[in-house]
Write a structure and sequence with these properties.
Length: about 325
Amino acid sequence: MSEPGVTQGHEEIVDDRLRLIFTCCHPALSIDAQVALTLRTLAGLTTAEIAHAFLVSDETMAKRLVRAKGKIRHAAIPYRVPPGHLLVERTSAVLGVLYLLFNEGYAVSRGTELIRHDLCAEAIRLARVLIELMPDEPEARGLLALMLLHDARRAGRVDAAGDLVPLEEQDRTTWDTLMIDEGRSMLESALRQRRGGPYQLQAAIAACHADAASSADTDWSQIALLYAELAAVVPSPVVELNRAVAVAMAHGPYEGLAIVERLEESGALANYHLLAATQADLLRRLDRRAEAAEAYRRAVRQAGSDAERRYLERRLAEVETASP
């Protein structure tokens, strides 16, 4: 008898990379430790890149990785491919690995490029293999839908010089409509199973963007509601920051700024450049230019990738030029 989510006859993991990921995601470790260690050991992400994904310092992540390796060594935890009936208990960690692998590819945390196509492509490939292995797991379908809907916008995210183009300024005719259609179809098949989860919610948000002919046509109220639902499922300061953006677009910058200021006061996103960048943008929209300039300067200092830094520097220059 196969476990829920694993179809009989599909228990054997035929893909070498996915087999190793399941092997590394050992339930004796916390899920965060499983994900971090797998990203470092198998995906080749640096400690700094993993630290960025978990919103901790490089030193903190280095210590966590050492502790995880130490626990495996001292407890003599074997690295063995789990049998089919034990795959389900490792699925959450495996999904987390693929999600963060894609995220690092989609928005590189450090370096000269904004996008690493190799990481995005590998995460998508592995998600497809995972669905073949576990066709009844809706969150695997939700994750693939999320990846496809985001990756479909890839060509519009950078200009000819390799600089960042924000969502509201992207040429939507460059978006990959076939990939969007596949993403929508994958999301619909996940939702039909009526077992919701965070990846399905995020894919639904991405679908709202894909459905809009322009930024102005986007159903920001629906996106704000979806982020509120996501925050209830997986409370996270990053989710709350994204909700602030959606609230600002749906109800005005004052409403969004109030959420951002609460996040800043909490210290949960200290040194996270997107918090400062969001605050700067909302202050700019409220014509509080001196405050916006200071927030942009902070975001520039905190940004890790050159592409994002150049974009923020342009925004800063625009605010400073417009200042009285």
